[in-house]
Amino acid sequence: MHGLNVLATWSGGKDSCFASYKAMLDGANITNLVNTISEETQRVRFHGIEDTLVQAQAEAIGIPLHQIETRGDDYESDFKEGIRSLILDRNIQAMVFGDIHLEPCRKWAERICRELDIDVMEPLWNRPVKEILIDFMRSGFEACITSCQADLVSGKYVGRRLNEDLLEEIIGLGIDVCGENGEFHTVVTDGPIFKRRIDVLESQKVLRNGYWFWDIKEYELVNK
């Protein structure tokens, strides 16, 4: 894939970030990060972080962000229409996804890319989940839990930084170690692809619709 122009789907969390990193290590030229936000809330779907925080991540990394407003009842159509012109303008040949083992997600990515006439890239696919998380941390990335299902994961975990101690606690909960089934989501604040890190200055925990969220109120980009 050396020299390919690719888009990278970007949620702001560890899996999309790490998949992008692995693609870059393999020589892919990521022209844009592609992020979808809810038209109603202006937050990243499922993760719950605000659109501006994802914009700050892209600025900290130095890769342009392409942000798409999507409607819940027409997500797929909005997503495809949101990137068609970008594919042509940037001569895009493939798109990176951070799927690990959920077959419906992979099949969706493959179908979307087929319809857009580009290749699909899944750098994390079928790797052991514990191995992925350890590799992510040991590669120098930093991330915190930004949301979790309240009936599966206690609110005490929201805002916690991923480390090997937390990994053992997650294993003890009996859930997917990478939260692949939506048990929890993360936000990445630093790593080897970041030129600046994100320091969270003010935040609060919020329980909303059966999910705990780490509502980040204030942050800054800091030179490393």
- The CATH architecture category of the largest domain equals 3-Layer(aba) Sandwich
Assigned CATH class of the largest domain:
Alpha Beta
Write the CATH fold name of the largest domain.
Answer: Rossmann fold
- The helix count comes to 6
**Lateral arrangement of strands in the main beta sheet:** 3-2-1-4-5
Summarize the structure.
The protein is an alpha/beta fold and 224 residues long.
Describe this structure in words.
This protein has 224 residues and is α/β, with parallel strands linked by helices. The protein folds into 2 domains: 5-121, Rossmann fold (3-Layer(aba) Sandwich); 129-223, putative n-type atp pyrophosphatase, domain 2. Helices cover 32% and strands 30% of the residues. The strands form 2 sheets. It has a 5-stranded parallel β-sheet with strand order 3-2-1-4-5. Strands 7-6-9-8 form a 4-stranded antiparallel β-sheet. A hairpin with a 2-residue loop joins strand 8 (196-208) and strand 9 (211-223). The chain is globular.
